[in-house]
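Got a spare moment? Tell me how you read both lines of this record:
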Amino acid sequence: MSNPSDLEAEIEATRERLAGTIDQLLYRASPKTIASREAASFKAHFVDPVTGQPRTDNILKVAGGVVGFVALLVVIRKVAS
């Protein structure tokens, strides 16, 4: 059978680990943390994190998609009128 002081020490260590885990979950679930993580992800898609140079291939893909969508809207409006 375990010593009561050993059990108390084990319970306290478990309590400390649980508190650390809860703090970590609260940090990860914080809206500010989520927003900054998403902003960094968005920025990393368009800017190379190593060199800091813009990724023109991704920028051109998005710009081409926007231009194509606008052209589609113009064609639909012309056909509808």
User: Anything to note?
Assistant: The chain has two domains: 1-46, 56-81. The chain has a mean pLDDT of 91. Helices lie at 4-29, 31-46, 56-80.
